[in-house]
Amino acid sequence: MTPLRVIAIDDEALALRRIEIALGQIEDAELVATARGGREGLALIGQLKPDVLLLDINMAGFGGFDVVEGLTPEQAPLIIFVTAFDEHAVRAFQVSAVDYLLKPLEFNRLRAALSKARNTLRLIDAEERVSELKGLLAALRGSRNSPEKPRFESEIWAPRGSGFERVLVSQIDWIEAERDYVHLHTPERSYLLRETMNRIQERLDPEMFIRVHRSALIRIDRIGLICRPGYGRFAVQMTTEREVPVGRTYVKKIRTLIASVPAAGVAARQGGGIAT
């Protein structure tokens, strides 16, 4: 089976790296080029004539919509959109010949989308594909102005050896800052990632993680005890029995957490008893 020739266009280097890793594990697809912008990507499409285009919608300047408008029947690949659009726009994609992927990219979802792309390429010609894509633009541009629900990472790629290892966010107990790096602590091991604490916090769901110190971010459902070792002082004991101090400026968040969580959920301890 001849591999699908794929071009990826995204202005985020991390997103392109994620695509590169994913396609490296799919035997019937080949990443022939990447571009960090729409104009560069459109030029590559004309030169390389790929079968499939992985196209980010929201790019600065010449974006995904502009790329679609610049296509001709002679050069049009089948487009798989990469999007953070809300459910209304997603449904618009579902009834069309194109597919979509939600960020952050999931490998199994990409594999399924490429399988659909291969089947679609057998059924319709390039001119039909361009017609369908342009027919979507009005609906998509309307959705573009709709408020978007924030989407948070479900997985993080961390360096390990000469490659990268996928770390599921659901496996992370807590995150510790060290200068321009963070340690992702899981029950099995820790991973060192070149990232600031503020940036990693932005990528994670605030309903799952809480900042307790300028250098500590913890998963709420991994909290075993909230301790008060002294007046006005707090510390969090994880279910792994690791104790993480709470910074003075974060004490209010902990008090709010204690007040909002049912008594059976997170216990607060003061000295030898339970704080009330």
Please characterize this protein's 3D structure.
With 276 residues, this protein is α/β, with parallel strands linked by helices. Helices cover 32% and strands 31% of the residues. The chain has eight helices and 17 strands. The radius of gyration is 23 Å and the shape is elongated.
In brief, what are we looking at here?
This protein has helices spanning 13-23, 38-48, 64-70, 87-94, 107-123, 126-144, 197-202, 251-260, and strands at 4-9, 29-35, 52-56, 78-83, 99-102, 155-160, 163-168, 174-178, 181-185, 190-193, 209-213, 216-219, 223-230, 233-238, 243-245, 267-270, 273-274.
Overall, the morphology is: elongated
> Can you give the helix content as a percent range?
25-40%
Radius of gyration, in angstroms, nearest whole number: 23 Å
Q: Quick check: average pLDDT?
A: 81
* Total of helices: 8
**Strand line-up across the major sheet:** 2-1-3-4-5
H/E element order: EHEHEHEHEHHEEEEEHEEEEEHEE
Structural class comes to alpha/beta
The portion of residues forming beta strands comes to 25-35%
Would you identify the regions where 5 or more consecutive residues have pLDDT less than 50? 270-276
Report the sheet with the most strands, covering strand number, pairing sense and barrel closure: 5 strands, parallel
Strand tally: 17
Q: Could you tell me how far the N terminus lies from the C terminus, measured between alpha carbons in angstroms?
A: 67 Å
